[in-house]
Amino acid sequence: MTISVTITVNGQQETRDVEPRTLLVQFLREHLQLTGTHVGCDTSQCGACVVHIDGKSVKSCTILAAQAQGAKVITIEGLAQDGKLHPMQEAFREHHALQCGFCTPGMIMSAVDLAQRNPNPSEETVRHELEGNLCRCTGYHNIVKAVMAGAQAMRG
Amino acid sequence: MYAFNYHRPASLADAAKLLGGASDGKFIAGGQTLLPTLKNRLASPSDLVDLTGIAELGGISASGGAVSIGAITKHAAVATSADVKKAIPALAKLAGGIGDPQVRNMGTCGGSVANNDPAADYPAAVVGLNATVHTNKRKIAADAFFTGLFETALEEGEIITKIEFPQPKRAGYEKFRNPASRYAMVGVFVAETANGIRVAVTGAGPCVFRHTEMEAALGKSFSPDALKGIKTDPAKMNSDIHGSGEYRAHLVGVVAKRAVQNALG
Ligand SMILES: Cc1cc2nc3c(=O)[nH]c(=O)nc-3n(C[C@H](O)[C@H](O)[C@H](O)COP(=O)(O)OP(=O)(O)OC[C@H]3O[C@@H](n4cnc5c(N)ncnc54)[C@H](O)[C@@H]3O)c2cc1C
Ligand code: FES
Ligand code: FES
């Protein structure tokens, strides 16, 4: 059995016939070829798969595409506007907040959500809020710096 | 995951009918527990009935000295609710300490209570505050709801609709988190309620339980010192790679004192 799922992804309405067991991350990567969203653990631990559903960060490896029926999803591909990086992406580049880059899409999506809820986050808040995102390379230090700078840039 | 059919009804009656009509149906709310279980192929339901499209299962309301939380209310909504923060700050704190922000944006109050994971946070609040679990069939008192490891009084096909938490005089929650999973190694919810002191312990044993010796001691003097010397039986604790029964029994005492301190503000 397949079901029809319609999700607005990065501003574009997308409808696909999928198996009900299709995860949101599979819908994005395999059906829409949006491979910026990564799968690190597939067990809701690492946060590489974080996207926004209706403005809130969630782990797309632990959500059925069907659960996002009718929702607005933003992925890492949807952050840059008119060829210009989002301030949080720019801050990650500027502060060298990535090495291999595998965790980065999820880190940035979590960071944008965090900054929307905490426009002026302390270092402690950033570290606490990034609990759901693991990085095996950087040691987090530059990520925290970047998120604080990115949040400031988002305040304008 | 094995294949299944998926339904998203808009009413409680339809949800019950869909589950009844399935050969082996299961409800899904946030999916933060169920989907990992399905991925591991530990369950193979024929049908998933999504409860999150049922409007009457949502929302938080505070009135008559109680806070009611709809079953599909997300942990993040409880953590940030002005009503919950005002009436029962310890409950807002508990919800805000579950998992991580992404889990809190999907996981629901009803799902956590229905699942009764031995290390989950919500069961401690339900028992500690003497809450009432409302279902599509009846009301169940906290003390009768959690019956064992992942076991509850819910019958096949019964749906939690909301949880009604009476407002305590004061309450505090403290958890010692497993640093990897963030679930409770030990969590203690202490409340001074209209009918006396209640102390609910999660994470430590196979199922949330009341610590009656601590309740009696706090009834005499509501202070961390009142708990000095009270022992918890290690034989009744969980013992696993994260900690021995002795370790958890000791932690119960430490965490309970902090919970009382939190209640005192
Ligand atoms: C990385 C991670 C960390 C976590 N950390 C914590 C933590 O620190 N503390 C904690 O307490 N929890 C933690 N959780 C679990 C989380 O809180 C879950 O959201 C919760 O246990 C289940 O809620 P759900 O809405 O996701 O339920 P689901 O996974 O959708 O369902 C769970 C079970 O409940 C049943 N169910 C759901 N809703 C109802 C209802 N209304 N009536 C009857 N049955 C129902 C389902 O059939 C299923 O059997 C964590 C989860 C993850 C993935
Ligand atoms: S891939 Fe989703 S949390 Fe790791
Ligand atoms: S930069 Fe490599 S995992 Fe984070």
Dominant shape of chain B: globular
CATH topology of the largest domain in chain A: Ubiquitin-like (UB roll)
Cα radius of gyration of chain B in angstroms? 18 Å
Main sheet: strand order of chain B: 4-5-10-6-7
- Assembly state here? heterodimer
Share of residues in helices of chain A: 25-40%
What would your notes on this structure say?
With about 160 residues, chain A is α+β, with helices and mostly antiparallel strands. Chain A contains 5 helices and 5 strands; from the N terminus they run E-E-H-E-E-E-H-H-H-H. Chain A has helices at about 25-30, 85-95, 105-115, 125-130, 140-155, and strands at about 5-10, 10-20, 50-55, 55-60, 70-75. Chain A has a 5-stranded mixed beta sheet with strand order 2-1-5-3-4, sandwiched between helices. In chain A, helix 2 (about 85-95) packs antiparallel against helix 5 and helix 3 packs across helix 5. Chain B folds into 2 domains: about 5-50, Uridine Diphospho-n-acetylenolpyruvylglucosamine Reductase, domain 2 (2-Layer Sandwich), CATH 3.30.43.10; about 55-265, Uridine Diphospho-n-acetylenolpyruvylglucosamine Reductase, domain 3, CATH 3.30.465. In chain B, the strands form 4 sheets. In chain B, strands 4-5-10-6-7 form a 5-stranded antiparallel beta sheet. Chain B has a 4-stranded antiparallel beta sheet with strand order 11-12-13-14, with helices on both faces. Chain B has a 3-stranded parallel beta sheet with strand order 1-3-2, covered by helices on one side. The mean pLDDT of chain B is about 95. Chain B is an alpha+beta fold and about 260 residues long. The radius of gyration of chain B is 18 Å and the shape is globular. Chain B has helices spanning about 10-20, 35-40, 75-80, 80-85, 90-95, 100-105, 110-115, 120-130, 140-145, 210-220, 245-265, and strands spanning about 5, 25-30, 45-50, 60-65, 65-70, 130-135, 140, 145-150, 150, 160-165, 170-175, 185-195, 195-200, 210. Classes of the chains: A alpha+beta (about 160), B alpha+beta (about 260). Bound molecules: flavin-adenine dinucleotide and FE2/S2 (inorganic) cluster (2 copies). One FE2/S2 (inorganic) cluster binds near residues 98 and 103 of chain A.
